[in-house]
Amino acid sequence: MMKAQTSVDIHELFAQRRSPRSLDESANVSNEDVVAILEAARWAPSANNIQPWRFLVGRRGDAEFKSILDALVPFNQSWAYRAALLVAVGGESIREDGNPNPTYMYDCGLAVAQLTLESHHRGFVAHQMAGFDADKAGALFQGQRPVIIVAIGKQAAADQLEGQTYDREIATRERKALSEIVLNALPL
Protein backbone atom coordinates (compact mmCIF):
# COMPACT_ATOMS: atom_id res chain seq x y z
CA MET A 1 0.00 0.00 0.00
CA MET A 2 1.21 3.49 -0.79
CA LYS A 3 1.65 5.80 2.17
CA ALA A 4 0.05 9.23 1.90
CA GLN A 5 2.44 12.13 1.35
CA THR A 6 1.60 14.34 4.33
CA SER A 7 3.00 17.71 5.42
CA VAL A 8 3.80 16.24 8.87
CA ASP A 9 3.76 12.69 10.21
CA ILE A 10 0.30 11.36 11.04
CA HIS A 11 -0.82 8.05 12.50
CA GLU A 12 -0.12 5.08 10.23
CA LEU A 13 -3.82 4.14 10.09
CA PHE A 14 -4.52 7.45 8.34
CA ALA A 15 -1.33 7.50 6.25
CA GLN A 16 -1.83 3.94 4.96
CA ARG A 17 -5.63 4.00 4.59
CA ARG A 18 -6.80 3.60 1.02
CA SER A 19 -10.07 2.61 -0.63
CA PRO A 20 -9.00 -0.05 -3.13
CA ARG A 21 -11.30 -1.86 -5.52
CA SER A 22 -8.97 -4.80 -6.03
CA LEU A 23 -10.12 -7.32 -3.43
CA ASP A 24 -9.13 -10.92 -2.74
CA GLU A 25 -12.19 -13.04 -3.52
CA SER A 26 -10.89 -15.90 -1.34
CA ALA A 27 -10.43 -13.80 1.83
CA ASN A 28 -12.87 -13.98 4.71
CA VAL A 29 -13.48 -11.90 7.83
CA SER A 30 -13.76 -13.82 11.10
CA ASN A 31 -16.80 -13.38 13.32
CA GLU A 32 -14.59 -11.70 15.94
CA ASP A 33 -13.30 -9.19 13.37
CA VAL A 34 -16.84 -8.46 12.12
CA VAL A 35 -18.02 -7.76 15.67
CA ALA A 36 -14.97 -5.58 16.39
CA ILE A 37 -15.50 -3.56 13.20
CA LEU A 38 -19.15 -2.98 14.10
CA GLU A 39 -18.26 -2.27 17.73
CA ALA A 40 -15.87 0.47 16.64
CA ALA A 41 -18.68 2.01 14.60
CA ARG A 42 -21.08 1.73 17.53
CA TRP A 43 -18.82 3.89 19.69
CA ALA A 44 -18.65 6.78 17.21
CA PRO A 45 -19.55 10.26 18.45
CA SER A 46 -23.22 11.09 17.97
CA ALA A 47 -25.14 14.36 18.37
CA ASN A 48 -27.30 14.06 21.49
CA ASN A 49 -26.19 10.40 21.62
CA ILE A 50 -29.01 9.51 19.18
CA GLN A 51 -26.84 7.00 17.27
CA PRO A 52 -28.96 7.15 14.08
CA TRP A 53 -26.85 4.61 12.15
CA ARG A 54 -28.11 1.15 11.24
CA PHE A 55 -26.06 -1.56 9.55
CA LEU A 56 -27.05 -4.46 7.34
CA VAL A 57 -24.08 -6.81 7.02
CA GLY A 58 -23.77 -9.24 4.15
CA ARG A 59 -21.11 -11.94 4.02
CA ARG A 60 -20.04 -13.10 0.55
CA GLY A 61 -22.39 -15.92 -0.42
CA ASP A 62 -25.36 -15.06 1.82
CA ALA A 63 -28.69 -13.49 0.89
CA GLU A 64 -27.90 -10.13 2.50
CA PHE A 65 -24.68 -9.83 0.47
CA LYS A 66 -26.60 -10.52 -2.74
CA SER A 67 -29.28 -7.95 -1.86
CA ILE A 68 -26.69 -5.29 -1.06
CA LEU A 69 -24.66 -6.11 -4.19
CA ASP A 70 -27.83 -5.88 -6.31
CA ALA A 71 -28.42 -2.34 -4.99
CA LEU A 72 -25.02 -1.14 -6.27
CA VAL A 73 -24.63 0.52 -9.67
CA PRO A 74 -23.03 -1.77 -12.30
CA PHE A 75 -19.59 -0.11 -12.03
CA ASN A 76 -19.41 -0.91 -8.31
CA GLN A 77 -20.89 -4.39 -8.81
CA SER A 78 -18.06 -5.13 -11.26
CA TRP A 79 -15.52 -5.23 -8.43
CA ALA A 80 -17.44 -5.30 -5.11
CA TYR A 81 -18.61 -8.90 -5.61
CA ARG A 82 -15.10 -9.93 -4.47
CA ALA A 83 -15.50 -8.29 -1.05
CA ALA A 84 -15.69 -10.51 2.02
CA LEU A 85 -18.36 -8.22 3.50
CA LEU A 86 -20.76 -5.62 2.18
CA VAL A 87 -22.18 -3.31 4.82
CA ALA A 88 -25.18 -1.17 3.92
CA VAL A 89 -25.48 1.86 6.18
CA GLY A 90 -28.83 3.47 6.81
CA GLY A 91 -29.68 6.45 8.95
CA GLU A 92 -32.69 7.53 10.94
CA SER A 93 -33.49 10.98 9.57
CA ILE A 94 -36.42 11.49 11.98
CA ARG A 95 -35.95 11.59 15.74
CA GLU A 96 -38.14 9.59 18.12
CA ASP A 97 -40.12 12.76 18.88
CA GLY A 98 -41.04 13.08 15.17
CA ASN A 99 -38.73 16.02 14.44
CA PRO A 100 -36.12 15.91 11.67
CA ASN A 101 -32.62 14.88 12.65
CA PRO A 102 -30.45 17.32 10.67
CA THR A 103 -27.19 15.64 11.74
CA TYR A 104 -27.98 12.00 10.95
CA MET A 105 -25.73 11.86 7.88
CA TYR A 106 -22.84 13.46 9.74
CA ASP A 107 -23.26 10.97 12.59
CA CYS A 108 -23.45 8.05 10.14
CA GLY A 109 -20.26 9.34 8.50
CA LEU A 110 -18.48 9.32 11.84
CA ALA A 111 -19.58 5.72 12.45
CA VAL A 112 -18.40 4.67 8.99
CA ALA A 113 -15.06 6.41 9.56
CA GLN A 114 -14.53 4.38 12.72
CA LEU A 115 -15.69 1.20 10.96
CA THR A 116 -13.16 1.95 8.21
CA LEU A 117 -10.25 2.56 10.55
CA GLU A 118 -10.98 -0.56 12.61
CA SER A 119 -11.13 -2.57 9.38
CA HIS A 120 -7.70 -1.25 8.39
CA HIS A 121 -6.34 -1.81 11.90
CA ARG A 122 -7.33 -5.48 11.55
CA GLY A 123 -5.56 -5.88 8.21
CA PHE A 124 -8.54 -5.35 5.91
CA VAL A 125 -9.45 -2.52 3.57
CA ALA A 126 -12.76 -0.71 3.32
CA HIS A 127 -14.18 1.12 0.32
CA GLN A 128 -17.24 3.35 0.74
CA MET A 129 -19.63 3.64 -2.20
CA ALA A 130 -22.31 6.22 -2.85
CA GLY A 131 -22.98 4.59 -6.23
CA PHE A 132 -26.16 2.64 -5.52
CA ASP A 133 -29.81 2.63 -6.55
CA ALA A 134 -31.60 4.58 -3.80
CA ASP A 135 -34.84 2.60 -4.13
CA LYS A 136 -33.12 -0.79 -3.98
CA ALA A 137 -30.90 0.31 -1.10
CA GLY A 138 -33.88 1.84 0.71
CA ALA A 139 -35.73 -1.47 0.51
CA LEU A 140 -32.93 -3.04 2.59
CA PHE A 141 -33.94 -1.00 5.62
CA GLN A 142 -37.05 -0.60 7.75
CA GLY A 143 -37.62 3.13 7.71
CA GLN A 144 -34.00 4.26 7.58
CA ARG A 145 -32.59 6.20 4.67
CA PRO A 146 -29.68 4.59 2.80
CA VAL A 147 -26.47 6.55 3.31
CA ILE A 148 -23.54 4.49 1.99
CA ILE A 149 -22.44 0.94 1.22
CA VAL A 150 -19.03 -0.27 2.36
CA ALA A 151 -17.04 -3.15 0.84
CA ILE A 152 -14.61 -4.78 3.27
CA GLY A 153 -11.97 -7.37 2.43
CA LYS A 154 -8.31 -8.04 1.83
CA GLN A 155 -6.54 -6.07 -0.84
CA ALA A 156 -5.43 -8.01 -3.91
CA ALA A 157 -3.19 -7.17 -6.86
CA ALA A 158 -4.44 -4.36 -9.06
CA ASP A 159 -3.92 -6.39 -12.23
CA GLN A 160 -7.19 -8.27 -11.67
CA LEU A 161 -8.95 -5.03 -12.64
CA GLU A 162 -9.30 -3.54 -16.11
CA GLY A 163 -9.73 -0.20 -17.81
CA GLN A 164 -10.79 2.79 -15.73
CA THR A 165 -11.05 0.65 -12.60
CA TYR A 166 -7.41 -0.44 -12.97
CA ASP A 167 -6.26 3.12 -13.73
CA ARG A 168 -7.96 4.43 -10.59
CA GLU A 169 -6.48 1.59 -8.52
CA ILE A 170 -2.88 2.42 -9.38
CA ALA A 171 -3.26 6.21 -9.37
CA THR A 172 -1.20 8.24 -6.90
CA ARG A 173 -3.08 9.21 -3.77
CA GLU A 174 -3.90 12.90 -3.89
CA ARG A 175 -5.65 15.39 -1.67
CA LYS A 176 -6.06 19.14 -1.85
CA ALA A 177 -3.34 21.07 -0.04
CA LEU A 178 -4.11 22.30 3.48
CA SER A 179 -3.89 25.86 2.12
CA GLU A 180 -6.90 25.06 -0.09
CA ILE A 181 -9.12 23.68 2.66
CA VAL A 182 -8.12 25.67 5.76
CA LEU A 183 -9.78 29.07 5.46
CA ASN A 184 -7.49 30.99 7.78
CA ALA A 185 -3.69 31.07 8.15
CA LEU A 186 -2.22 27.78 9.28
CA PRO A 187 -0.97 27.96 12.87
CA LEU A 188 2.68 27.20 12.14
Q: In words, what does this structure look like?
A:
Belongs to the nitroreductase family. With 188 residues, the protein is α+β, with helices and mostly antiparallel strands. The chain has a single domain, classed as NADH Oxidase (3-Layer(aba) Sandwich), CATH 3.40.109. It is 36% helix and 15% strand. The chain contains 8 helices and 4 strands. α2 packs antiparallel against α5 (104-121). It is globular, with a radius of gyration of 17 Å.
CATH topology assignment = NADH Oxidase
Q: Strand portion, in percent?
A: 5-15%
Task: Specify the number of helices.
Answer: 8
Side-by-side strand order of the widest sheet: 1-2-4-3
Kindly report how far apart the N and C termini lie: 30 Å
Mean pLDDT: 94
Helix content: 25-40%
The main pleated sheet reads as: 4 strands, antiparallel
Shape: globular
Succession of helices and strands? HHEHHEHEHEHH
Structural class based on helices, strands and sheet pairing: alpha+beta
Overall radius of gyration: 17 Å
Pfam families: Nitroreductase (PF00881)
Family: Belongs to the nitroreductase family.
Keywords: Oxidoreductase
Domain Nitroreductase: 15-154
Strand-helix topology:
Elements: H1 12-16, H2 31-42, E1 53-59, H3 63-71, H4 74-80, E2 85-91, H5 104-121, E3 125-129, H6 134-138, E4 145-153, H7 163-170, H8 178-181
Antiparallel strand pairs: 1-2, 2-4, 3-4
Helix pairs in contact: 2-5
Family: Belongs to the nitroreductase family.
Pfam families: Nitroreductase
Domain Nitroreductase: 15-154
